[in-house]
Specification:
The complex is a heterodimer of chains A (108) and B (167).
Chain A: H1 7-20, H2 30-43, H3 49-61, H4 64-102
Chain B: H1 5-37, H2 45-50, H3 55-91, H4 98-128, H5 131-144, H6 146-157
Helix pairs in contact in B: 3-4, 4-5
Chain lengths: 108, 167
Amino acid sequence: MKQEMTEAEAVEWRKVLREARPEPALPPRFRDSVWCRIQRDEIEPEAAPAVLWLERVVTRLLRPRMALAGVLTIMLLGAVIGVLDGTAAARQVAQDRYVAVVAPHVIR
Amino acid sequence: MTAMSRPVLILLAIALASVAIFAWVFLFASKASSRHLSRPTDELEWLQTEFRLGKAEMERVRELHNRYLPVCQSFCDQIAREKRSLQQLVEQGQGTSEAARQRLDEIARLRASCQAAMLQHFEEVSRVMPPEEGRRYLKEMRRFTLGVHEQIEESMSGVQGDEHAHH
């Protein structure tokens, strides 16, 4: 048989239940920060597609595997171009040295 | 910080870091390879690498080179002596005198003789090389030596590519 609960009894029950399950204390200024976030979300417009695209690119670039591959590629590129440049410089120095010996400036 | 600036700043930082890493590796590799490849004691190194000369060819070139150097040195010493003499005349206010004129003629004569010896040496060296490399060597040496005068004369006459235009 179903018994109807009066309003007074319901209030009393809710009070008993609340006391039986105590809520943890909120961190300081919790309410303020929640309101701040709500206000900020209302002020700032929804992110543009370009921003979302940039975010995605940055997230991808910052992945460890991607970052490592990028650094290694740059290092390899720098080393290859550096060796080519050094080789050309050494060749130029050797050429200048030979020309200076066989054809000094005084007779050119 | 706006929503746009955060990824842009991160991308900028990534770009700067990439440039820094590239520059560091590039400079290191460039210096290391340049230091490794150059042999400051051998002045004929360029001939060997540039014209792909073998050991026997290099020995013959070295022989010709060692024979040519004292000749070149002797001419250079004589030119330097005449130039010092001319300089003294100019300092004494005799820059237009007959003696100064004779010094200039002598310097020109010595230079011409020295250049003739130099060209003869180039011819001899080119004959030691394989024909194609020899032609390339002569062309290169002409550009480095006589080509300098041609550029100056062309720039002064204002005419390029027509050697007889000023006659």
